[in-house]
Specification:
alpha+beta; Umud Fragment, subunit A; four-stranded antiparallel beta sheet; globular
Length: 205
Amino acid sequence: MTDEQTKSSKRSSWRELPILVAVAIVVTILVRQFVVQSFFIPSGSMEQTLQLDDRVMVNKLVYDFRAPARGEIIVFKNPASWPSLPDGDDLIKRVIGVPGDRVVCCDPQGRIEVNNHPLDEPYVYPGNRMAPEEFDITVPRGRLWVMGDHREASGDSLANYHSHGQDIAAATIPLDSVVGRAFVLFWPAGNATWLTVPETFDEVP
């Protein structure tokens, strides 16, 4: 190889570098916009499953192919009927009821029932009741009933149900407000874990 060829190759590599950087930036933006995105937890409403300042990865593509399922943890845009948020308009909660479900609190053991199936919820914050107040609702078409795991400190469907005079439409969230499914807790690294659906939801008819 001649000196001229070596110099030409180096110059060519330097000219290509800005193009490669630009492509990498575009790919990163597209992935973040349409596929996966990280979110931090701004409050204690999902304790003990998720702690304040934890970071989760959210699959933004999955619900383009199917609807959210019971037991999944989702990120969604704060509905207009809910109080405004000081830290942005994204919320994270667990799906308890999907369209058509009857969700009731509570059975004689204090458990929430979905379609007459009692939920065993060990992930609920220690010492909390499964629901701070009684309710009996049917989830409307195109909407979801969501609750935080820290039941007595969560601005969720139940809290908004009672604050809006038991208005089920104001309490539930529209399906089109869902950003995606939180599928992994990745930070802090020592607490990293998959966010799977609890087995109790498997038996809901």
